[in-house]
Amino acid sequence: MPWSTREIAELAGTSLRAVRHYHDIGLLEEPDRRSNGYKQYGVEHLVRLLRIKRLVALGFSLTQIDEMRDDGDSREDISELQALDEELEATIERLQQARAEVGALLRRKGRSDVPLRFAAVDDRSDVPEADRRFLTVMDTVLGDGALSAYADLLDQSPDQVALELDDLPADADEEARRALAERLVGYVLALRVRHSGLDGLTSEAPRGHRQASRAIKEALTQLYNPAQVDVMNRVGDLLAKGELPG
Fold this sequence. Notes:
Residues 1-71 form the HTH merR-type domain. It comes from Streptomyces pakalii. This protein is mainly alpha-helical. Helix content is 63%, strand content 0%. Helix 6 (129-141) runs antiparallel to helix 10 and helix 9 crosses helix 11. The longest helix is centred in the middle third of the chain and has 32 residues, at 75-106.
């Protein structure tokens, strides 16, 4: 016995409005009508309706579904499916990452403002708040290689000279800044040897070197006091010029 519009909609788990819309755009063929004028749907309509519903659930647009053959064997259909598969794979990776971060938060091993790869810093009292915020910026603009090297660096206890930079007051005098910058040069060079990914941090930045460098510069300027920024700039200048203190 043929199904009415309401019956086939219920059977397919969709709405009357959806069925009528599919008719309007030519996605679902209009069925024959009974003598009383009511539509009568058959198995072919149900199969087509279920296919539309399935493809919509997979993420295809109605336009894409309209262009696809029912057997799904055309080259265009295969290409659409491959593209969707890649998109789903990327979505799964994002969801897995999100679930890992939520799990870390539930276990109280991570804060919502600290990226998961740097969650270990939450268990340490020697990481200043400015450094925590700086990590968030770094996680946004740097590539995986540089971030992995940075994460490895944070797993180690900081050197005394690095702690001096953390504690440097904003009103530190010229001599204190110069002396600290010169001592930091050797420390930075040693870090680059132990963590090769730190050499050329922005070279593999996903959004490009220029944008990453600008973001890092803005973060340094806004998160650290003027004396600390001045010392970091001096270190950069000494390294760039090759004027390494003896």
